[in-house]
Amino acid sequence: MSTPTLAGPTPATGLAHDYLDIDSLLTPDEIALRARVRGFVDERIRPHVAEWFEAAHFPRELVTEMGSLGLLGMHLHGYGCAGRSAVDYGLAALELEAGDSGIRTFVSVQGSLAMSAIHRFGSDEHKQHWLPGMATGELIGCFGLTEPGAGSDPGSMTTHAVRDGDGPQADWVLTGAKRWIGLASIADVAVIWARTAHGIRGFVVPTDTPGFSATPITAKLSMRTSIQCDIALDGVRLPADAVLPDVTGLTGPFSCLNEARYGILWGALGAARDAYETALAYALERRQFAEPIAAFQLTQQKLVDMALEIQKGQLVALQTGRLKDAGRLRPEQISFGKLNNVREAIAVCHQARTVLGGNGITGEYSPLRHANNLESVRTYEGTDEIHTLIMGRALTGIPSFQARR
């Protein structure tokens, strides 16, 4: 006896893409912003991203276009920034990363790291000089915290800044090295964190300053549409007012990292959604044993598992964004979202690749590219282990970042 076919919704109804009707939780303005960014990704990124990834090319021509869309420092107010909500920023990050993690990373480094540091901790002169041009994309910034020997433990940095002379107007001289610094080789300004006699301080460093050099890291297997660099600081001389005046210690860079982590917990879902939608479309078209592979139980299980994790992750992201907009978001809640959503997004992309079979290892399809990119996303702005320990400290009240003896 044959099994009757039950009538039910097709993917065209939208159920396949928004099973829980999460769109009903968004405002019309949020949906309109998302549509604008999605249209930009469909027109300017999707047709070319496989080539860019293969060639390890960052499409610099997109920078001013993203500026004109208000995507650079979009969560900041004043100085030409869009002043959008945290949820708006998250939705934009999701759509950009549906195109490619490298493009979303540019927006994160520019806006959440470099611009946020200047906006939050810089002098009025710093803000007026740098932020308007960075908001339009005419100027590019980078953020130098990580070092060759100091990744998850930035407090062990060896880059240092000393005063050359006495008095408040004495120059600063920076010496040291930074690694894995996004955009450094094309940046106009770098925010560099360095150890001083009075604690860790941030410095606004024009990249044409003598002694500053940035070398792109090549032969990457991930984030190939993005730029990461080694920075050398060889006696970089800066005026006294180059220091960010309103912060001392790791509170400054950590607050910027939390801005970037927030964007990541949304962005990773874009990569996952694109991988899932690619797998779903393929499964409905690809025929084996005289049936579309979407008719097979194991394929349906894979699609269901992907949809579950994407939709749960979207609820996590949206609630995190609403908390942020309400001024009630705690750092450990950002860690919750970054840890969960990136980890599950990688699993979704790997699962989507299996639906594509051998075709899934080619550049024609996105899931494996997304999975490779997400391995970097998983590592930067706090590894899984660091975010686990941040949550563990919040749950138990016991910090365990150092090995106990």
From TrEMBL:
EC code(s) of this entry: 1.3.8.6
Source lineage: Bacteria, Bacillati, Actinomycetota, Actinomycetes, Pseudonocardiales
One Pfam family cited in the UniProt record for this chain: Acyl-CoA_dh_1
Catalyses which reaction(s): glutaryl-CoA + oxidized [electron-transfer flavoprotein] + 2 H(+) = (2E)-butenoyl-CoA + reduced [electron-transfer flavoprotein] + CO2
Organism: Actinomycetospora endophytica
Protein name, entry field: glutaryl-CoA dehydrogenase (ETF)
Alphabetically ordered keywords of this record: FAD, Flavoprotein, Oxidoreductase, Transit peptide
Known cofactor(s): FAD
Family: Belongs to the acyl-CoA dehydrogenase family.
Residue ranges of domain Acyl-CoA dehydrogenase/oxidase C-terminal in the record: 255-395
Gene3D superfamilies per record: Acyl-CoA dehydrogenase/oxidase, N-terminal domain, Butyryl-CoA Dehydrogenase, subunit A, domain 2, Butyryl-CoA Dehydrogenase, subunit A, domain 3
